[in-house]
Amino acid sequence: MGHPFRDVAIVGVHNTRQARRLPGHDSSSIALQAELGALADAGLAPGDVDGVVGQAAADAVLELGLGPCTRRPSNLGIPSIVDGAALVTTGQCRVVVVLAGGAGLLRDTVAAPWTTPPNELVAGFGLFTAAEFALMARRHMLTFGTTEHQLASAAAVVRNNGDVNPEALYCGRGPFSADDILASPLVADPFHLLDCATTSEGGCALVLAHAEIARDDARAVWIWGCGSDSYGPAYTVAPVWDFSGRPGARSAGWVGTRAARASFSMAGLGPADVDVAELYDPFSFEIIRQLEAFGFCGPGEGGPMVESGAIGPGGSLPVTTDGGTMSFSHPGVAAQQFQRVVRGVQQLRRECATAQVTGAEVALCSNGGSGALFTDVLLLGKERP
Amino acid sequence: MSDARAASPLLTPQAPGFPVPHPSARSQPFWDGCREGCLVLPRCAACSAPALRAFAVCAECNGTEVVWEESAGRGTLYSWTVVWRPPHPGFAVPYAPAVVALDEGWCFLSAVVGCAPEDLRENMALQVEFHPASDSVTLPYFAPVSN
Question: A124 and B20 in contact by Cβ < 8 A?
Answer without folding.
Answer: yes
